[in-house]
Here is the input.
Amino acid sequence: MSEGSEGQMAIKLTDLPHEDLFVGPNNGCPGCGVAIALRQATKVLGPRTMVTIPASCAATIGGSNLATAWKIPFFHALFECSAAVASGIKAGLERQGKKDVVVVSWAGDAGSADIGFQALSGAAERNEDILHVCYDNEVAMNTGGQASSSSPESVFTTLTPAGKPTGKKDMLAIMAAHRVPYVASASIGYPEDFVNKVATARKVKGFRYLHVLAPCFRGWQIPAARTVEMARLAVDSGLWPLYELVDGKKRVTVEPARRVPVKDYIRPQGRFAPLSDHDLEAIQRQVEAGQGCFGAKW
Here is the structure.
């Protein structure tokens, strides 16, 4: 291990247990961003974990009927109520005196920022002792590739063939406004940063919110082999800043060693094909002004 922030020992990937709690074969596509995120996170969460997932790709890839990729208890919730179900599970466990079990509500961007937002906001406002992870592929892929409020401006989806006219919802700012103990952004392209944030969130008492970029190669129209590369380029271009808020105090957790132009991230993605060079220049100026996906129109 190496020295982390505030004198804590940072987890390295080589420190993680060899056993997977979300295993293969699963039903995810090759290069599935959410399957990668689940594998990374569950290694840190450990066996004393219960997960609830609403309708989403994450729910379907974990198996159905008698087949499952999970080695920990998993509950399939309705689209709109994953955080509420997780709150109930936590209350039931505490009633039984089982206070060492981490309860995780794991939802996509549609299940967090849109359809599931009411339950999520309620759980945060009550400061429920659960961890909510929004895996963000910036499109509602499980239901056909529609736009979500987490989709960036100008992106092509089945609902926005001419490009989405509005920008990405700043979910981290919204969740921070609930004054919860822990809020953080993450990316599967920076796995050590992600697993350390999962480890931090695991120890915090009260409501925790993690927002992890987990690209979908089908929705993004990229080769499956480039999923992790795109997740890393999002950070390196400045469009997906990595930071955490501990009791409202913000700390940037990753400063890219080399900042790349936003075009290096956007141009390989077919979903952004309509963007002109002029559009890319405007986005580049926005990034240079300190505005990434969160807090900017784009």
In short: The chain is about 35% helix and 15% strand. The longest strand covers residues 102-108. The chain has one domain: 2-288. Confidence is low (pLDDT under 50) at residues 1-7.
